[in-house]
Amino acid sequence: MEGVVHPKPSEQQFVFVDNPRLVFVQVVKQIYEKKKVVVISERALISENAKIGSNCCIGDYVVIGDNCRIGNNTIIYDRVSLVQNCHIGNDCVIQSGVTIGANGFAFERYPSGELVRFPQE
To answer: Which of 32, 37, 71, 102 is the most exposed place for a label (fewest CB within 10 A)?
Structure first.
């Protein structure tokens, strides 16, 4: 074919596996584990009495309130709020935008129309 370059057989390598997707995930995981960087963003607000475990990553605009504890090897992505008295375990991942430790917005309505807050504690 014109315009197509075919590599020499010595430049190619084929690997046949039963589950190529799984092997790909395992290889990428090893690459990311080697690149893992422990950092607490300068833009995070962390209470003086909060306890942060070792090897944690805390993203931008994270708020960690009073009496919060974060376990080891935990990743907290950007814009997370741990309001107060939250205990996050080891090896956890908290995705962006999550709020923990605050009242939610769940209400139920009596037949009369009056609202009652759903208990969440």
So the answer is: 37
